[in-house]
Amino acid sequence: MTPSLNRIMLYVRNIENTCRFYERHFGFSAESTTDDRVVELKSPNGGAILMVHQAAKSVKTGQVTVKLVFDIEDVEGFKERCSAQGLHFGATHRADGYTFANAKDPDGNALSISSRAFARA
Question: pLDDT by residue (tens digit) across 54-77?
């Protein structure tokens, strides 16, 4: 059996703020149960589930060892929509046939929007 990557754990300072951020800007919906300390954020388009967990006080958030990359065909259009909602991305960069831009979530976790998945091979 070959394992597949379907969940990413985010350790955060404020679970509610983080969930609202991903719901508002990326269309995720939060699911939780009263006896579970993890909130699952699921995209309406499928893909990996973000598991949101309260960070211990000793955990340093916002390290740039992992970046969440969201597939967006129209990077500029998505940036404009997010800007109107208060999320500002940095400059749009051009790479081998695709574009991308970077930002951070409320806990300083790195994220990117990228049209790489839509680039012509």
Answer: 988 887 776 656 789 899 999 999
Q: What strands, in cross-sheet order, belong to the sheet with 49-54?
A: 7-12, 49-54, 39-42, 29-31
Q: Please give the Cα distance from 101 to 89 (Å, whole number).
A: 6
Residue 40 CA: distances (Å) to CA of 47, 55, 99: 13, 15, 29
- Is the overall model pTM greater than 0.85, yes or no? no
Token pair listed for 37: 């300390």
Superfamily of the domain at 7-118: 2,3-Dihydroxybiphenyl 1,2-Dioxygenase, domain 1 (3.10.180.10)
